[in-house]
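Recall from the previous chapter that SMILES is a line notation for molecules. Here it describes zinc ion.
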Amino acid sequence: MKLILLGTGGYHPNNVRHTACLMLPELGLIFDAGTSFFRVPERLQTDEVQIVLSHAHLDHICGLTFFLPTLIKGDVSSATIYSDDKTLNAVGQHLFSDEIFPILPDYNFETIPESLEVAQGGRLTHFVQEHPGGSLGFRVDWPDRSFAYLTDTHCTGTASEFVRGVDLLIHESNFPDGYEEFAKKTGHSTPTPVANMAKEAGVGRLILTHLDPTLEGNDPLNLSTICEIFPHTEVATDLMEIEF
Ligand SMILES: [Zn+2]
Ligand SMILES: [Zn+2]
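With both inputs in hand, we obtain:
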């Protein structure tokens, strides 16, 4: 099963990272719709898509406006957005208001159920996270594999049971170690608590994403120190393809 990290930055895009969106093209399953959502149409492999939103902060929803031509041309027959009600309301009332983006693309809006059926026999469940305004973390279990996507959350290990035993954990680490106070204040994570949770929860592989776009250097999270805690850790890059 292939998962593509279309955008791996937080807050705003920079020269190497667009903001959050990840896609499983064979399944028509997409998580978040940040600026990297413009990369979705050329990768479509299904007639229907499910778009699951963690929350309504701009770096996770602005790309919903980029899908209008695809929907008008009929390149997909249906596109359904799933999230909690407050996120759906924010998208419907604010992003697609007359003043901001006056044409409402032909999306279906659905409150995310406790368990959502996805392609190939998968079941998507969610977890309410600590973040200003709230956010949802996600887990998908198929009969033979699993993954979880937790972004925009302050990791304290409370998601440990939720992610237990997943083959692949994609988790935000907006800030490097040393920024714990600021991470707590803004509802984001630093890598050490995430690696500790991955180890404790027995996940197979950890990929850190949603990096602060102002971080500099090619190893902003100091990966070798994180790998001392949990060796199977990588830092996401835009367009990284993951087979799991
Ligand atoms: Zn974000
Ligand atoms: Zn956020």
